[in-house]
Amino acid sequence: MELQQLIDTDCVIPKLAAKSKKQALHELSVCAAEHTGQAQREIFDALLERERLGTTGVGGGVAIPHGKLAGLEQLYGLFARLEAPIDFESIDEQPVDLIFLLLAPESAGADHLKTLSRVSRLLRDKAVCEKLRGCDSCENLLSLITDRTTTFAS
């Protein structure tokens, strides 16, 4: 699935105010609940459960929290740029300021992993991350996220 199929401007938060990893996941859960129709608590619990397995702070100031939900019918993405970096227990021990949340149906399997890989490749690109850090509008952030995906093979 291409990223432009699972994220739109309503799913981009250009200035998320969060002081901690848990608060960021909570705020993202609230937003995701509004757009997916899923219960905020179920989303939050799924994200916390995944974090217990190991951090989704992948390094370079980036985190990709993700989880699977029984009631979800399709993959769903949400991107947030934090107002100030936070400790996310990242593998490189650096604070995080860019977060891409990915939610998938329990049955997603390979589609979930392919999309997760696509997001990871995008956010490993230092030039893209610097451009994301320099944007303030939902439209520009979305454009940077979705325009890059056209170069990836499925």
Write the layout of secondary structure elements.
Elements: E1 12-16, H1 21-36, H2 40-53, E2 57-59, E3 62-63, E4 66-69, E5 76-86, E6 96-105, H3 110-124, H4 126-133, H5 138-147
Parallel strand pairs: 1-5, 3-6, 4-6
Antiparallel strand pairs: 2-3, 5-6
Helix pairs in contact: 1-2
Please tally the β strands and state the result: 6
The CATH homologous superfamily is called Mannitol-specific EII, Chain A
Distance between the termini: 8 Å
Structural class category: alpha/beta
Helix content: 40-55%
Poorly predicted parts: 148-154
Radius of gyration: 14 Å
Q: Judging by the overall fold, what is the CATH architecture? A: 3-Layer(aba) Sandwich
Overall number of domains: 1
| Biggest beta sheet summary | 6 strands, mixed
Task: Report the sheet-strand fraction.
Answer: 15-25%
Mean pLDDT, nearest integer?
91
Highest-level CATH class: Alpha Beta
In sequence order, what are the helices and strands, one letter per element? EHHEEEEEHHH
> What is the count of DSSP helices, taking H or I runs of 4+ residues?
5
Which outline best applies?
Answer: globular
Q: What is CATH's topology name?
A: Mannitol-specific EII, Chain A
